[in-house]
Amino acid sequence: MPDIITTPLMLGAVALAAYLLGSVPFGLVMARIFGLGDIRKIGSGNIGATNVLRTGNKFAAFLTLMLDAGKGGIAVLAARAFVGEDAAQLAGFMAFLGHCYPVFLGFKGGKGVATWLGTLLALAWPLGVAACATWLAIVAATRISSLGGLVGAVLSPLLAWLLGLPTLLGLTAALALLILLRHRHNISRLIAGKEPRIGAK
Question: The pTM is what?
């Protein structure tokens, strides 16, 4: 963790703003803009990019991925620029929490992988690139998006340590635990060999 130098009141304001930003359901917004229907009623029912991709609209899925990642990245960069590094880490965590448990959707949100990647890229780009590369490598090898996110998240504290970023160990561990929690049903399907692959009918 970084040194806490920001006042509790300011940290509270940052946390609230980042949470509200993270709560914006861009997958749902993109699905409506592109006339794809309510993605909560198709596929996995998730509001993330992978489920948007199941509609067959790759461009909408790409936009969802970028916007969901951007929530974490923008929260971190804005907090760092206007407040400080302690606020930046808090903002990244709260944006992630908002994506997973959005107030606008009754606290039923996405699984957080894109927002997690955007957060890490903004906090420390070498760590973000390493996490993205891990996710891409696993997805390329298995065509299972959830597995890529799970492996990347679990390895992220180790990657932070190897890259000499000890102040990010606590945050990466907390985000990894939440990603594991959000993917508990995926983990059960992976164990049973029933997790769907990207491109599968």
Answer: 0.91
